[in-house]
Amino acid sequence: MKKSKILMITGSLLLLTLFALPLWNITLEAPQYPDPLGLDIHIDKLADGNNPNDVRNIDLLNHYIGMDRLPEDMLEFKIFPIVVLVMAILGVLAGLSGKPRLYLTWVIIMAILGVAGIYDFYSWLYHYGHNLNPHAILKFVDKNGNPMAYDPPVFGTKQLLNFTVHSYPASGAYTMMVGIVMAIWAFVTGKKEG
Amino acid sequence: MKSMYKNAVMALVLFAGLTLVSCNQGGSNNGGALKSSAAEKVFVAPGEYDSHYAFISGGFSGQLSVYGLPSGRLFKVIPVFSVDAEKAYGFNEETRDMLKTSHGYIPWGDSHHPDISQTNGVVDGRWVFINENNTPRIARVSLETYETAEIIEIPNSAGNHSSSFVTENTEYVVAGTRFSVPIPQRDISIKDYKGNFKAALSFIKVDPESGNMDLDFQVLMPGFDYDLSHPGRGKSHGWFFFSTYNTEEAHTLLEVNASQNDKDFIAAVNWKKAQEYIKQGKFKTMPAKYVHNVYSDETHSTISTTKKSVRVLDASKLPGLVYLMPTPKSPHGCDVDPSGEYIVGSGKLSASMTVHSFSKMLKAIENKEFDGEAYGIPILKFESTLAGTVEQPGLGPLHTEFDGKGNAYTTFFISSEVVKWKLGTWEVVDRKPTYYSVGHLMIPGGNSRKPFGKYLVAMNKITKDRYLPTGPEVTQSAQLYDISGEKMELLLDFPTVGEPHYAAGAPAEVVKGFSKKFFKLEENKHPYATKSEDDVRVVRDGKNVHVYMTAIRSHFAPDNIEGIKVGDRVYFHVTNLEQDYDVPHGISMIGANTSELLIMPGQTETFVWEPKQVGVWPFYCTDFCSALHQEMQGYVRVSPRNSNVKLSWSLDDE
Amino acid sequence: MKGLIIALLSLSVLFVSCQRTGNQQSSTEDLTKNTPKGQASVVDEESSPNILQLAIQTKDLSTLVAAVQAAEIEHVLVNAGPLTVFAPVNSAFDALPPGTVDELLKPENKKKLAYILTNHAAPGTYKGRLLKDGRKIYMATGEYIEVTRKGDDVYFGGAKILATVDASNGVVHLIDKVLVPEEK
Prior knowledge:
By secondary structure, chain A is of the alpha+beta class. Chain A has one domain (3-193). Chain A has five helices and five strands, in the order H-E-E-E-H-H-H-E-E-H. Chain A has helices at residues 3-13, 54-62, 75-97, 100-130, 171-193, and strands at 24-30, 33-41, 46-48, 156-160, 163-169. The longest helix of chain A has 31 residues, at 100-130. Chain B contains eight helices and 46 strands. Helices cover 33% and strands 21% of the residues of chain C. In chain C, helix 3 crosses helix 6 (110-118). Chain C is globular and about 55 Å long. Classes of the chains: A alpha+beta, B mainly beta, C alpha+beta. At the B-C interface, helix 1, helix 2 and strand 34 of B face helix 1 of C. Chain C: Residues 1-22 form the signal peptide. Chain C: This is Fasciclin domain-containing protein. Chain C: InterPro entries: Adhesion/Biosynth-related, FAS1_dom_sf, FAS1_domain. Chain C: Pfam families: Fasciclin. Chain C: Residues 48-179 form the FAS1 domain.
């Protein structure tokens, strides 16, 4: 089999690791949490990031400022697995076809989906951080007197009250990136082979 | 590329310069005051950990305290034999039975000698065993939960003092009686002591997995007083040594009458031989009533059982089971060195200390070098087992521990000092005063094959003017010495809880990994556990009312209860729903004739309230749990006995 | 590259030298020196006097007190005890062969003096009926000394008990002879 084909097929199969590995991780640090609290975002669920009961304990803290409980099911948790599965199959098919043009198309679709995914993630965080219970126990306002919002960063580090919040891609995102890079590489070598 | 290296070199040089500067600064600070050297050795910076744990017995407080060394900071007081209202120990429904004995419920005890479990002769940091002197009992404290996990009563025993030391694989925890008594107990004249009073040495088997204790057998001994004991180790593994006094068998004014004999004995018990005799069925099953209490971390409750009999081996009738080694003047301490060869007897009224040799003892037994017998038990010739004498080291020798480098350290009560001497040459190397009247001393791992000879803790009975005065009762204290050098160095005085009777210690790495953070809610098998706020309820059963309550930051569910009547007996079964480290909740009810509860995450505890007056009575969280701790409260409406108010409960009016 | 290695090396040398200075600074300082006489340094004017305080207050025991101080065994007489001290009065010391006391008070004889004085102390409280005729009492040195009774008089190792005073940590018997142990 041609090198480009192998690269393309392997690269798209790497997407399947997303069924096991988290896509993103949000970590909350505070002095009274020497073991920081963590939230792992998977394509199909939210999970304890650093220690057992992290999700439960984040909810417990959030209820003081009126945030919703972290969702157990969302529309995304149903759609994302299907999208990932379909993309993996399409990638394998593209690889079997051996047409570098299809590889590139796959990469472009992945990029579009990625941006869409991150936008969705952002809007969810925004909603989660702004849509506060009016009966919240603790109500803070910003400099302008508007109710304080608590949306964590999509990417990077941010101070929220007494917590330092870090939000970065997790292992699943990295394997997905490797997969995409392999597809690009397949496109390049495929062109040369062609 | 080249410039990158240049930059890197520059950065390193700069960094090196910085280290140099900071190093100099440290130097000038240290050099300025000579006094800071001892202070530095005990200073543990905020947020840093101590290097060693010390488990110091509370003596007459009945408790066990956990300290850090070298700082001497107190971390926790673990109630063992005495009630503790702070932790509801002995007050709540779950732990009340831990203090049950064949004499009924006893709220106080006298804790003495903690000893850490061992594997292959090295402390393993799993459990601490500790004895109660007054109503003979042995407790096992878990180093996962730092709570008392088990207490077993010892029958045929009185003044449970030569206890609770473990063999080198924790096969047994051993308990000896200080006072001899009629066995079995009966109504006879005290004057008939001689020959009629007997002593029992108890061998309690320890389950290697669970740690659960079971009284395997007792060795029946002549009516002496059995003062202290230690296991053989290494080559002497399989033997256990007990010091005795009152071999005169006096029954009154022991101060004088038990100090008449020139020599008492160290009794050497061959427990492997005892196991053979048990296998051969050469024991007698004697009726005996004793209580065994086990606390479960799953049901968060105590199961108490009463045992009816004990297997007894008679030392007077079974050859090879026990030998007596004459030891001058009422030996108190009976300490075995890390190699297992030397057994140090500290005749507390003797001017010198006697050291026996285990290998010479075996040879003397083989050659039958006997000097008569006591109640059928062979007495070995004094010279035959004698390894050496430490001449005139001080006045009133009590206890000896070892540093694993060939040195022994003995405390002297009357001359109030610790004396360091060399095993084998018996020469005194160093002495340091204690303040004042030292009893036991502890070197972490000092009762094992592998002592960690860096620190020595001396535990004093008297402090007089050492601390700010606090009325007629002043603190007792411990003193920390650095023993890593040739000479001992006093580093620190620190006050202790109760009487620091004895202690056990170990490096932090050996112990700290076992510590639990919280109890898993899904593993909670308490019969009255409530694992979700959806399940809270109040159930009436005649005059008994059971409240299935939960606590989580920052409310109780339910927090409004109506329909309780005067004369009811209300059980508050409160489950802490938290699953996070260090978030206990407390609860107490106005007028409850009991202590608060202090409930760990995932745990269920119960207190009883018997309302006597009509009205609306509040309860609240007693442990500052969260920012809204002050809001964590609720009400119970109490109606007259004949009222028709329906039983109801709610949270947020739902 | 060479520069890098040199920098690393010099860095490690600095680090090591820094460590060494740290060790040198842990020179020992004797915290026990603050209380040279141990428990005998405790100032307490209110409690009933212990054996040492009693001896100091008794004029007729001034030679004994001087000897105890010379032997530096004050702390033995102040601990919780209980102790029985047979305290020779001044005239008992005077009755010793001339020069004996001066000889014993010399620093080089400190150990011998301490032994003789310790031979006047017994663990336990022996007084009244407990001083039975023929009872051998075990002294802190390991020697035994016998009690004899002649009529109302009590003798201890041949010395007559002149008076008995209770102390907070035991009892003091004033005696008319020094109990010199047999030479070993």
